[in-house]
Amino acid sequence: MSRYRRSLAAGGTYFFTVNLADRKSGLLTEDINRLRGAFDIARTRYPFRTIAYCILPDHLHAVWRLPEGDADFGLRWSVIKRAFSRGLPAAVRSASKVAKREKGLWQRRFWEHQIRDEMDLQRHVDYVHFNPVKHGHVTLTGDWLYSSFHTYVARGLLPRDWAGAGGDSDAASFGEVK
Predict the structure, then answer these.
(1) Residue 146 among the catalytic residues
(2) By CB count within 10 A, which of 112, 125, 172, 173 is most buried?
(3) Which residue is catalytic, options 14, 53, 127, 146?
(4) Does domain 13-173 have CATH number 2.40.110.10?
(5) CA–CA separation, 57 and 146 (whole Å)
(6) Would you list the DSSP string of 124-150?
(7) Cα–Cα distance between 119 and 136 in angstroms, integer?
(8) Which helix (H) or strand (E) holds 106?
(9) Where are the domains of the chain?
């Protein structure tokens, strides 16, 4: 069995990418209220602070800060995936997924990156907010409904016309190593 190295810093801040198994699916945005409910369940049982998020049809990005003394983001993602999947029909599954009682809706693994400093945090928050433009869902960041971008605008942290068509020329590389 593979053992993945994870950076487990109690009270740390992390960037995540979590994908559906079917990358052509629109399930996350089609059933956004189910996803919100799954996040609420996880946050109630195992608190965390969401710094930024963006939900796309087939994957999502999030930046979380975990409580002091707690580094178990894997448990939180497990609760979210399980709560979201409950009540939905199973996808076509491998014998392994059947044996593990997985519905086959989510990719098993997810990408995580421990945020190192304020610059790293800013790059990843920008990446999260720019993602719907990057994937061609909208031309302006503010036109995507399922993002914390709107909270940043309401708090005066970003202008409504931040990034997108006619926006920052470096926008396409937000969060990525140059």
Answers:
(1) yes
(2) 125
(3) 146
(4) no
(5) 10
(6) HHHHHHHHHHHTTS-SBGGG-SSBTHH
(7) 26
(8) none
(9) 13-173
